[in-house]
Specification:
About 30% of the residues lie in helices and about 25% in strands.
């Protein structure tokens, strides 16, 4: 990806060496002609085998407001996004291997808004707490878990849940999502032969539609929106710090990864640093007005690419 500065003047001799043109290298780059199917096949499809064999996987949609994160993740009825395509393939793959294994698939859909967690499938339950259970895995107390293997049913649930998301108009986008939405799918499998000390394999799949990251100047936020934006940017910063620490691991010093800085990173702790595979889909807008946002997004995503995890 080559990012050109829209304000750059070729005549200006003094700034000739200080060009802000930057080049970034990623595993995949899509232009505006890419279909939902292409994006899904090259980013997420390969993670499904891992989830079934007990690894964790995380998919992030990251980028400024209005660049298409929710479209990539949820999509529309005619062009479903990554959520639905992943689940359909997951169910197909599970059906193919059910000869000697018993499977349960449970999923929950929640949002993190201003550092509080809300259940999108049951919004009346109020704010929920993150707890750590005896095995040290993070649980959300009181979250609704749905087990179904019907992708249509799930699409309805997700669309309904998405309507419950905190959305507010900003100058950048009429229906800007002001919260991080997390779809958490847990696949548990046991062997049908009742052996002693029977092992359970648990694979978790997180699909995260992050809130828009942008400068307040761009969205002309004041008052409540401004505070909200600070919260959004704070949790994205915490995620960025974890990504930085993880990508520098094995460098000169053993880096401490602070997962407790935000609810988002705490929830994703196992899926960022542990037995996991992570994909970040960064969205940028081609408009010259959002040059700054595009630059920050690309730098962020480029850092995420350097994470090395010890599986």
């Amino acid at each position: 990806v080559v990012l050109m500065d829209p304000n750059e003047d070729a005549e200006e001799i003094l700034r000739a060496n200080r060009s802000r043109e930057k080049t970034f290298v990623f595993d995949m780059v899509f232009d505006h002609r890419a279909t939902q199917e292409e994006v899904y096949v090259s980013t997420t499809k390969s993670l499904i085998k891992g989830v079934i064999s007990g690894y964790n996987a995380t998919i992030f949609a990251y980028g400024p407001t209005g660049a298409g994160k929710t479209y990539t993740m949820l999509g529309t009825d005619s062009e479903p996004g990554i959520y639905i395509r992943t689940l359909e393939d997951l169910f197909k793959a599970l059906e193919a291997t059910t000869e000697e294994m018993d499977y349960t698939v449970s999923m929950s859909y929640l949002e993190i808004y201003n550092e509080v967690i809300r259940d999108l499938l049951n919004p009346s339950s109020g704010f929920l707490d993150l707890r750590e259970d005896s095995k040290g895995s993070i649980q959300i107390a009181g979250i609704t878990e749905v087990s179904t293997t019907n992708a249509q049913e799930i699409m309805q649930l997700l669309t309904k849940g998405n309507k419950q998301r905190t959305q507010e108009p900003t100058a950048a986008n009429k229906t800007s999502s002001r919260s991080h939405a997390v779809l958490q799918v847990t696949v548990t499998q046991k062997s049908q032969r009742k052996a002693v000390g029977e092992e359970m394999r648990i694979g978790k799949l997180f699909m995260v539609d992050l809130a828009g990251s942008e400068r307040a100047a761009q969205t002309q936020n004041r008052g409540k929106r401004m505070k909200e934006g600070a919260h959004i940017n704070r949790s994205l910063l915490a995620l960025g710090n974890c990504i930085n620490a993880l990508s520098e691991k094995g460098g000169s010093r053993a880096q401490f990864v602070n997962f407790r800085d935000s609810k988002l990173t705490r929830l994703l702790k196992d899926s960022l640093g542990g037995n996991s595979r992570t994909v970040m889909i960064a969205h940028i807008s081609p408009a010259s007005t959002s040059f700054e946002e595009s630059r920050m997004t690309l730098i962020y995503a480029y850092r995420a690419r350097n994470i090395k995890t010890q599986v």
